[in-house]
Structure formats: structure tokens, C-alpha cells
Amino acid sequence: MNNCAVLNDDNDNDNNDTDDVLRETDLIEYSAIRRLLATLHIAAIVTSALGNGLLLVYILHRRRRTRSAASATATTLILNLAAVDLASSAVSQPMRLFDMLTPDLPGFDDDSSAATAAFCRASGFVALFLACVGFHTIVAIGQERLLLICYPLTAKAWLTRRTTAKVLLSIWIVAFCSAVPFPVLFSCRVNIPLATQTYNFCTIGLQRNGRYYYMFVFAVYYALPAIVVVASYARVFASLTETAAYAGCLKDEAVTKLIRHRRSLAWMMAAVAASFAAFEGPFFGTFLYLSLGFRVRRNRIFVKMLIDFLPILGHAVNPAVYLMRAKTFRRSIAAASGSETRISRVVAAARTTNGPEYTPPMTSGGRETQLHGYRCKEISPNMA
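-> C-alpha cells emitted (384 positions)
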């Protein structure tokens, strides 16, 4: 098998029962199943392309009205994620679909030709590269929410257009460098003899030194980001809950609406992060699965094609999440006009009561508290 793997390890080449295992019936052999997967894939690609394309147009149209730097940061990060989803729908997923259909396409079954080798390398690189950019963009969105809601004074200094551009540039460059070894060292095309036909498709090589690379990809682009995202949104929701408890003391409708909006926006972006983790998880999990030497003995090609299909579902789900919270999404794209002014009145009122040297209260760890979360006693009676 030329050191290629189909959700198995390289010890398969040494097993006496390799031919028997490989010649078992695989669900992908049935043309009806291939056609069903292809139909679902095409539908998901069209839905994702239209949804993310319209999303990009809407964001770019409204972006020129954004006035605050913090709002521009959120808009830019969502724009970047939509661009990644659109690129995957327009480039990566059609390549995966073509790979799925190659058994039904005559003349594309030579696994040693330069054309097929280049195709496998390109499709593998693009899929991994865009997935890496997407997940780290999800992390960046989580950190933007964390800064804006839990550390507003720090956010004022960090959430700038210049910083956002540097972060996004770093995400794309690091993802590119991390994905380059995949097509160079670990991408190949194989012919797998099944019970009724020989199946030809792209897969990944499982050289022993590649296991460290697979572990690196899983840890850096899935496990660690997932932990960071979960911790960030847990902190965000805890702060929003605490803030909501004190919002009644202000009796200021604008502040109450702002808290409600930020909670809704946090739920929306948390749903996007959960969708990405769920649908991209099997793709990244495959790397860990292979690096630990595990394998699937039955329907392995069908499982591989199903894993390739899942990410496009996530890309199609994201615009639907934004649509379900359309009001929140529209407001997040537009500038949060007046919110900083309203919150500044709260700070000014507190200073009127406590003196001009008053500074926002700190938590026990010395961190900034939420800007809205002042105790009732710290608010001037004029604000009540």
C-alpha cells in the first residue's frame, strides 16, 4: 500500500490476513450509497457557498458603517471565518467530492501518475490548511468576547484594527506552515481491492516519523483550542450572569439591553464554535487515531469518506446560526453606538459617590471586573 493508510496502521502490510481484510465488502462499493453521499455533499456545498457568500456581501456592505474599533474587531473575525467557510465550499470540498466519485470516472485510476499525486497533495493541503485557519479564528473570536466582556479596559487597548490584522495574519501564516508537511510527506493515492471492485482514492501516509506530526496537528489545532474556547466562554457567561444580577440596580434600559445583546452574541458565537468542533472533530481526530496505531477493520473507506463529508455540514450550519439570531448578528455588525457613553455614565456616577480617584473594582486575582458589574452602593442615587 506504499505506506498509505486507510484508517489503519502500517503493520497491516505485515499481517497474513491483509488481503482478506481488504477484500471485505465496504459500504462505499454500493453505487446507491456513493450517489447518496455525493448528492448530500453537493447540496451542502451549494448551501454553504450561498450562505457564506451572502454573509460576506452583507458584512462588507455594513462594515463601512462600523464606528468603534471593538465592533470592527468582531466584524473582521466573523468576516474571516465566513471567508474560510466559503473557500472550503468553493475549493476544498469539491476536490473531496471529486475524490469520492473517481471510481465512477474512467481514466483517473493510476495512483502512480504525477497528476493524481499532485491532486492528492493539493486536496490534502487545502483541507488541512483551511481547517487550521478556521479553528484558530474560532479561538480568536472567543478571546475577543472574553476581553470585551470581562476585561473592558484591556480590550480598549487591544481590540484595535491594527492588532486584529496582526492576529489574522499570524493565524494564516502559522496554519500554512503547519499544513505544508502534510502534502509533502504524508499524502498519497492508493488502489484498494474490495469485494466487487478496486477503489481508488486519496489518503494519508502513516510513516512512523509522521505520528509525531499527527499528534502535533491534533494537539495544536484541536485539543488545545477546544480547551481555550470552553474556558473562555465559561468565563464570559459567568461574568454576564453576574452582571445581569446587578443590572437591576442601574435601572438603565440601555445598559440592560446591552447586557442582553452581549449574552445573545456570546451564545451565538459559542454555537458556532461548538458546530466547528463537532463537524471538524472527526477530521482532526483521525490524526490522533492513526498516530496511536488504531484502525477500522470494516467499512474503512466509507468511514473515511464520511469524515471528509462532515466539515462541509459545519460550514453550512454557521450561516444558519447567524440567521436564527439575525437581530443579534445585525447589531454585532453595526457599531454599538452609545454603549461606551452609557457605561461611562455609570463610571462617572460611581466617581461622584466615591471621589475622583475612584477606579473600577478588582477581583481577588487583581483582574479587571466587568465594566457593568458595579455594586448598587457604588452607583449614584441619581442613576437609580
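The first strand starts at residue 4 and ends at 5.
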